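Antibiotic biosynthesis monooxygenase
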Amino acid sequence: MIARVWRATATPEGAEAYRAHFTGSVLPTLRRLDGHRGAYLFRLDRDDLVDLEVMTLWESDEAIRAFAGTDMTTAVVEPEARAVLLTYDETVSHRTVVVDTVNDLV
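Structure:
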């Protein structure tokens, strides 16, 4: 399994708007894709800003390319997300999952 990780920063209001976008638009799209295995949205509140991190899980590079296109490192950031975020990564990183206690992969 492969974890695809992306980061952004928002105001508290923007972070809540992104959460709504993520659950209402992004997740339904991801769930329809073959090879998608799950997603997480993490939030870290600090002073008057919020750090967001998205981790999506995929069964293969081919599944990621079906979502992201031929350049797997390019972030997919929809206009609705861009509108509520202060900053966001233009690229993503990928990590091989070597232990997964949810799915008993070791």
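The mean pLDDT is 94.
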